[in-house]
C-alpha cells in the first residue's frame, strides 16, 4: 500500500482513539499522540532505504520482511514512543499504544495486497498475500479527505469519525466479498477447462486493480512453463486474453543461477515468466512477475544480457531490474480495456540498464 494511505490510516487511528476516549490533552500532547500514530503507520516501510542506498536488488530481498515482522511491531513502537516521550514527556504508554495500532494498520493493509508480507516471522517464514486490495486505493484517501473537510466545517467530531471508519470498513468488506465471488466463479470455470492436464495442478491467482468492480479484476494461471492470462466482465464472466509459454534452457538457468537480478526475481516473484531473444551478439533474457499485468505489459521485470565466451559459456554483460508494481501510464487503460481481446505480452526493459554497471 502507498505511504499516503498508510499516513491517513495513522491519523484515523488517532481520530478513533480521541472519539472513544477523548483527546488526551489539548496542544502538545494531542499533537504528539497523533504523530505517534502516524509514525507507527509509516515506519515499517523503512526498508525503502535499501532501495535508496543499496539498490533495487537488496531492496527486493528486504521488502516487507523483517520490517513487518512480529518482533519489530513491538520494538519499533516502543522506540517511537521513547523518542516522542523525550520531546513531550509523561505519556510514554499512550504514544506506544497508538504507534502499535498504527503499525497494525500498516501490516494489515500490506497483507491484503498482491505482494503481501512476511508478517508472522519468526513464527512463519511464509509471505502472506491477500490479493484483495490494490497497491493504491483512492477510496481510502477520498474518505480521509471527506472526513477532514467535514470536521473543519463543524460536523460532530465523534459521529464523523465513526462514519468514516464505517465506510472504510464497508469498502474493505466489499473488496473481500467481490474477490471471494470472482474466485468461486473462476475455480468453477477452471475445473471445466480441458487445456489443463492432470500431471501438475495449476497455480492461479485472482488479482485486483484500482477499481473495486468485477471488470477491475484479472487472473493468471500457471501450469509448469505454461501461463494463461485473462480478466472478468462486468457480470463476472471469465474472459481469456493471452496464453504464453515461459522460456527455459541454458541461458535462463545461467541467469537464475549467476545473475543477481535473476536470483532476486526468482526468489521474489511468485509466478516467474521468462522470454528470451537474440540481439546481435547477445542473448537477452527478460524476466517478469506474471501476476503484475497492465493490459499487455508485465512491468515488474528484469533484463539480463548474456554473451558467449570463447569456450562457449555464458557470461553476464548487463543486468537491470524494474521494480514497478504500478504502471501509471496504463493504469486507466488497464481498467477500461477491451474485454477478452487476445494480446501478445510485452516485458519492458529497465530504463538505461545498459548504461549502468552491474547491480
Automatic annotation (TrEMBL):
This is Metal-dependent hydrolase. PANTHER family: HYPOTHETICAL MEMBRANE SPANNING PROTEIN (PTHR40031), MEMBRANE-BOUND METAL-DEPENDENT HYDROLASE (PTHR40031:SF1). It holds the Pfam family YdjM. One of its GO terms (molecular function) is hydrolase activity. The keyword Hydrolase applies. The keyword Chloroplast does not apply. Keywords: Hydrolase.
